[in-house]
Amino acid sequence: MTAARVELLTRQLDLTWSLFEHCLRSLDDPVCLWEPARECWTVRPDGRGSWVADWETTEPDPAPATSIGWLTWHIGYWWTTTLAHCFGPGAPAREEIIWPGGAGAAGEWLRGLKDEWRAALLPLTDAALDSTERTAGLPWGESLPLVDVAGWVNFELAKNVAEIGLTQRLHAVRAD
Predict the structure, then answer these.
(1) Which of 12, 58, 62, 147 pairs as cysteine with 154 (C-beta 3.0–4.6 A)?
(2) CA distances (Å), 76 to each of 49, 51, 172, in order?
(3) What is the model's pTM?
(4) How far apart are CA 40 and CA 3, in angstroms?
């Protein structure tokens, strides 16, 4: 029997994802790579055929604006690392998690990660959600029970989707 908390987590995920799908339907490469401010983190081709994200180990204060490309990379980054730490052998280095190079490819990448995350959650019991066993290698949540990490994933996704939606609207009404 599926635990009630797993059902709540997956319903939250599904609701947030439906909003993201609304954003993804109208997302194209120019909007994805648009930089809404002078100080902006984005994703850039590295000259070897890969797209890398701007990053500083210590986040600047104030934090820079971000492009939708960067936001989609960021979602992919934390989902890849969380999945690999909690349900796999451990995460690759941040530098190995590259943006797939376009709005459509980013959408497919993130859909795959969402499906993998949802499938990993569904069979969990309350005991598994309360355990810290799966979060043991997670750099930012090592002592947290899995239910807290899963709740964070939903919250972080909702925050990033809201930022993507706002950036799309700003792009649509910009005065060049």
Answers:
(1) 12
(2) 18, 13, 25
(3) 0.94
(4) 42
Q: In whole angstroms, give the CA distance from residue 6 to residue 76.
A: 22
Question: What is the rounded distance in angstroms from the CA atom of residue 35 to the CA atom of residue 37?
Answer: 6
Q: Are 147 and 130 in contact (CB under 8 A)?
A: yes
Nearest to 144 by CA among 154, 153, 156, 134: 134
Reported as a single tens digit per residue, the pLDDT across 33-67 is 999 999 999 999 998 989 999 999 898 999 999 99
